[in-house]
Design a protein that fits this description.
The complex is a heterotrimer. Chain A is an alpha+beta fold. Chain A is built from four helices and seven strands. In chain A, α2 runs antiparallel to α3. The longest helix of chain A has 15 residues. Chain B is 76% helix and 0% strand. Chain B has 18 helices and no strands. Chain B is globular, with a radius of gyration of 20 Å. The chains are: A alpha+beta, B mainly alpha, C mainly alpha. Chains in contact: A-B, B-C. Chain A: This is Transposase.
């Protein structure tokens, strides 16, 4: 499997088919004498910023810490062993509500969107 | 029978998307200054958009990806960023122009200055997106858009010399005002080939759960719908040529001049019809562009999206269209002339085309996405032609705009 | 060959033309007579717009508020363009003066028509329309003289 071509930037969904995000980055383990093995995918703005360069990555991480606290200073990771199905989307056997990936969307809902009538 | 209904709905919908402030204003300007001579630009633009819309629909129906999903996945985030930023910027300007178009219509109807209408219009559009479903927006507003057919009726009632109209469909060199001629040709092409139109269409195909059985319907909707829209644009151009130019009004630089097109044909009803056409066409387009901004961002970053869901279920998505509408209302509320903004944004749209159209060449030829439904030679030739055209337009218009063209 | 005077900046249509001159290096005749030609045509188009709007109003096909707004907006264009024609450098001062006078007459007539509209005085509007027609004819004559081949 060509990892970069077939996995990177694909849509990620959880077991309820909720769209979690895109595969913004891959974490691979280098093994001497053997091909590298994927251990996790990464998603979120920090990973995206790192793809643009080391400096944007550092800026984004600092911004994330400032806005969300130290627990948001690292990109979100989903372990590869949780993968369930690779089709149009990549399905992981997780429930996004149990992760912190949607923390900012939850914040948005609780503080702004949810307060507007009719939401 | 059901398919037939789908097709006719789709055709009506694409008319709603096609005719907006840009195509109306550019066609009116061209008709007033150059008579029928620029009809070819409308025809060329319509043919180009037919190809792009058909491909977007086919891509969505076969691969179950929207165009933005496809670009991100196939080219990676770093490449995707460029068309994303270009489309966001162009859409912002177009959205602002559409809000301006509705605001002008309201000014004409009430006598209250257009800048006062910008925020109420944005609010009403937002309310529809907030509470409405995709079907309501797509179908309801588009049906009202049929009022723009009054331009076609008007054009026929004026009994134009149809051979002269046909001659105008063949490109020819200008005999006067060469610079204006080419600038208008560029604006017309920009108004016809709008990226929001084909991107929105692919999102709509996903929202309506299209699959391969829709390929025939897709072809019919793209072909008939866009031809229908182009016909109305040509109607505007013919009316402008036969009403404005024959009265000696050759330069349409002021939006107050626009209702004068229909008054000599329909009397007071002409005024009413013009105001209604402008308001409805622009409002429909504002809804589509506003929604497209949210689709673009949500699809690009993989968030939940869907107009039929409740705002609280996709906070990111609904926040994006809320902010887009609000921001786009600001230039108009500050009194920026909507007609100038329109012409400017149409030319910029034309210049941005290579960024959004180049991906089609790859996506529609990639077996992993479209399998056996790949592009044929004709479709690929059309894409290459549009890219080349967009490239030339970019080279011509960007300097013009920087140095102060409209 | 291309030149920019401050009044050029006001006229976007002209600037657009000017830029293409620079860009394509094809139009070699970007002289001040072009400026006056362009501005005269803007004035002619504007005055016909006013006549059309007034006709529509007289026929009961255009609301008064809309017609007044149109006259105000076009009146402003006339005033701006008139100022540009007046200050343009030209080798034919006599013709320039008659063009300027025609534009002035147009502006005055538009203002009168506006007053007539606001007072709902049909006669006054008709009078002003008559003046507008005369002034636009004078403009056409002056324009033709300006561009007539000189010995």
């Amino acid at each position: 499997m060509k990892l970069l071509r077939d996995l990177l930037d694909k849509q990620v969904v959880d077991r309820e088919q909720v769209k979690v995000g895109k595969v913004d980055g891959l974490v691979a383990q280098l093994r001497p004498g053997k091909p590298p093995r994927i251990i996790a995918i990464e998603l979120g703005s920090i990973t995206l910023a790192r793809r643009l360069g080391a400096r944007p990555g550092r800026w984004m991480a600092r911004l994330a810490v400032k806005l969300g606290g130290t627990q948001h200073g690292e990109p979100h990771r989903i372990a590869w062993r949780k993968v369930k199905d690779i089709g149009i989307d990549i399905e992981f056997d997780i429930d996004v509500r149990e992760t912190s990936i949607f923390a900012w969307q939850d914040w948005l809902r609780d503080h702004i969107i949810g307060r507007i009538p009719g939401a | 029978m059901k398919k037939l209904l789908e097709i006719s709905l789709g055709v009506v919908t694409s008319v709603g998307g096609f005719l907006e402030v840009g195509s109306m204003a550019t066609a009116a300007q061209a008709g007033a200054m150059f008579g029928f001579q620029l009809i070819w630009a409308v025809v060329l633009g319509t043919v180009c958009i037919i190809f792009l819309v058909e491909m977007s629909g086919r891509f969505a129906a076969v691969s179950h990806h929207t165009i933005s999903d496809g670009i991100r996945e196939r080219f990676g985030f770093n490449v995707f960023l460029w068309p994303l930023l270009a489309a966001l910027l162009v859409n912002f300007l177009v959205l602002s122009a559409e809000i301006g178009g509705v605001a002008i219509a309201l000014e004409l109807a009430t006598g209250i200055g257009f800048q006062w209408w910008a925020l109420p219009v944005a609010l009403l559009a937002w309310l529809l997106l907030w509470k409405g479903t995709f079907g309501v927006i797509e179908k309801g507003v588009s049906f009202l858009g049929l009022v723009t057919l009054c331009f076609v009726v008007g054009a026929v009632m004026l009994r134009p010399d149809w051979t002269a109209v046909a001659r105008g469909a063949v490109p020819s060199l200008p005999v006067h005002d060469a610079a204006n001629y080419w600038f208008m040709a560029v604006s017309i092409l920009g108004a016809s080939i709008s990226p929001y139109l084909f991107m929105f269409y692919s999102s709509g195909a996903i929202e309506d759960r299209w699959d391969k059985s829709y390929l025939g319907a897709n072809r019919a909707i793209a072909g008939l719908g866009m031809t229908f829209g182009g016909t109305i644009s040509i109607g505007v151009l013919i009316v402008a040529a036969l009403v404005l130019a024959t009265h000696g009004v050759t330069q349409v630089d002021d939006y107050h001049q626009l209702p004068l097109m229909l008054i000599p044909i329909f009397g007071f009803w002409g005024f009413v019809l013009f105001v209604a056409s402008l308001a409805i066409a622009c409002f429909g387009a504002a809804l589509e562009v506003g929604l497209q901004q949210a689709y673009l961002v949500a699809q690009g970053f993989g968030w939940n999206w869907g107009e039929d869901r409740k705002p609280r279920d996709d906070p990111g998505f609904s926040a994006t269209y809320t902010i887009s509408l609000l921001l786009a209302a600001i230039p108009i509320a500050l009194g920026l002339d909507p007609l100038r903004l329109t012409i400017f944004s149409m030319a910029l749209t034309a210049a941005s085309l290579p960024l959004t159209v180049v991906p089609f060449l790859f996506l529609l030829n990639d077996k992993r996405y479209v399998g056996e439904h790949r592009n044929g030679i004709l479709s690929n030739a059309a894409v290459i032609f549009i890219i080349a055209l967009g490239f030339v337009l970019a080279v011509v218009t960007i300097p013009l705009q920087i140095f102060g063209g409209t | 060959m291309a030149h920019q005077t401050p009044d050029l900046i006001v006229s976007r249509r002209y600037l657009r033309l000017d830029c293409l001159c620079l860009l394509l290096l094809m139009l070699s005749a970007c002289s001040s007579s072009d400026q006056i030609e362009q501005q005269s045509r803007t004035v002619a188009s504007a005055s016909q717009t006013v006549l059309m709007a007034l006709d529509a109003w007289a026929a009961g096909a255009a609301p008064t508020a809309y017609t007044v707004d149109t006259l105000q907006s076009i009146g402003k264009t006339l005033a701006d363009t008139g100022a540009q024609i007046r200050s343009a450098e030209t080798s034919e001062p006599t013709e320039q003066a008659s063009l300027t006078k025609a534009v002035n007459d147009l502006s005055v007539a538009v203002t009168r028509a506006e007053a007539g509209l606001q007072a709902d005085d049909r006669l006054k509007v008709q009078d002003a329309q008559q003046d507008l027609r005369l002034a636009s004819r004078a403009l056409a004559t002056a324009y033709a003289k300006y561009f007539a081949p000189k010995p």
